[in-house]
Amino acid sequence: MPRLQFNPNLIECPNFASDIYTASRARFVNDNTTEEEAIGHLQALWKAGNDAEKVLWQAQEDEDAREADEQEQLLKEAEERQAADLEFEKETARKDEIKKNKAKNVLWQAQEDEDAREADEQEQLLKEAEERQAADLEFEKETARKDEIKKNKAKYIPIPDREVPDEAPVIASQFAMKRLEKGAYVGMWYFTNAGVDDALQHSTAADDDAMVLQTNSEGRDHWVPAASTRVAQSFIEDKDLPWEDFCQAVPRMVMAMEDAGWLESRVEMFAQFWGSLQVHPHRSSRDRLDQKTLLVYQGEQRKLWHQAMNSPRGGYNISKINEVVMRKTREAVYWDARQATDNERDFRVDQRLASKLSNMTQEPHRRGGHSSNPRYSSDKRRRSRSPERSSSISRRQRSPADRGYHNQKSDKDFRSGTGRSGHSACAVCLGRHTHAIVECNAERVWNSAHPTISQHINKDLQLRNGKPICIDWQRMSGCSSSRHDARHICSGCGQATHGAQNCPRAEKASSANPV
Is 368 helix (H, G, I), strand (E, B) or coil? Predict the structure, then answer.
């Protein structure tokens, strides 16, 4: 192993808040991670590497010290041998002298006895030292064994003598249980059948403290903490769960809270909260949006409650349903559904119009060498008058609390900057060919030159690692909102300087009026 040339104890941590580390911080920033937390993650990663170098440096220092001790010991032994030889010569001369002087035999015998006694004492001391060393070694082994048992409890849990149960136990993922043990927010999906099945499938995942290899938006591999990639790919937000899955998850969540050591009063509060939602008048309504309202209210209010617990004002009793907030949530759900319906209708109309325009540009020029452009002469679409436009308070003007702000918008048509076929670049594959762009989940871009880095999940646009990105940013007009700048990332290459329409990987648009 090459020697370290510099003492890592003297190296200072880089300033990860500086502009040079902007790209590094951006990889960590998401809805749940702020800029400051990203800096903290970078500092933690640097510290982990520096700590590892400190260990290597200390080992190197210890090795140098050991070699110096060995040299010193060899020198000392040589000196001792030399001294012993000299002593031996002296002792030999003394014995010869005693032999020559019989009168001194008594003194010699006494000296012999004294030497024998000292030798016995030295032997006894050496034996006691060896016994103490053996006892210390045994103590260290016992301490290490106890630490191992404490660190890996599951490895040493006694196994009861009983048969395999008839039904498999319902066990949520370690990621969800760890968050519950910390008192943090956990999605209901982890306690549905799908979430439990996913936990069973990925039960051999790496430890949270381990480092795993991950491919970033630029196709480069880099090491990241395993905990940051633990969210399941098939995870569904509370507001998008089917009502049956929500009812299925509630009792499991309550039991998991109890197992995680939550206060009985808190567990009872959440049980009352979910029970109140299940007996709410919206539950038995024939309007499907009413049940959707209950799910959105549940998901939003539970997240807000967890945020409030860490705020200066503290938490509140979430089990008491706020009908004012419920009405606002119902209105926001209505507008989201209305927007999705209009978007789907507009997409179908534009697809038909684009197909018609493509067919007409391929026909011979008629009527004096000019062909009519249905985009400008035959566009007789009629959109239903949106109450959003006639309302005195538009949906854009309402506060996020009033309209239950969600960063979810269905894919609209991208009419600006279309090519010869009238299509804009798909946010996923970056192609301009005719296909359902709102459902595209291609693995490669339009020309197979690069792997796609984004995907559609429940009408949302996300990176492959699960990070949500803004779908409006992918349009030619871009997104004017400043509430989610971190989501302004190109869905084709991962850069923040442009959207999908201006991505260099996108299929080039051809002229709509070829000569």
Answer: coil
Q: Over 215-254, what HEC string results? A: ECCCCCEEEEEHHHHCCCCCCCCHHHCCHHHHHHHHHHHH
Residue 260 near residue 248 (C-beta atoms within 8 A): no
CA distances from residue 362 to 223, 357, 420, 421, 422 in whole angstroms, order as listed = 51, 9, 10, 10, 13
- String of DSSP letters for 1-68: -PPP-S-GGGPPPP-TTSGGGHHHHHTT-BTTB-HHHHHHHHHHHHHHHHHHHHHHHHHHHHHHHHHH
Both tokens assigned to 87:
């002593």
Task: Check: pTM over 0.85? Answer yes or no.
Answer: no
Q: Which residues of the chain have pLDDT under 50?
A: 205-206, 217, 227-228, 365-421, 511-515
Angle of helix 243-259 relative to helix 174-181, nearest 10 degrees, comes to: 60
Phi, psi for residue 395 in degrees, rounded to 5 = -65, -35
Per-residue pLDDT tens over the stretch 332-391: 999 998 888 888 888 888 778 877 877 777 665 444 444 444 444 434 444 444 333 333
| Rounded Cα distance, 38 and 97, in Å | 86
What is the predicted pLDDT for the residue at 459?
73
Q: What is the DSSP letter of 109?
A: H
Distance of CA 286 to the CA centre of its chain: 39
Q: Concatenate the DSSP letters of all residues of 139-179 into one string.
A: HHHHHHHHHHHHH-HHHHPPPPS-PPPSS------HHHHHH
Nearest CA-CA partner of 499 in 464, 470, 456, 466 = 470
499 phi, psi to nearest 5 deg: -105, -170
Of residues 142, 103, 255, 97, the one with CA closest to residue 190: 255
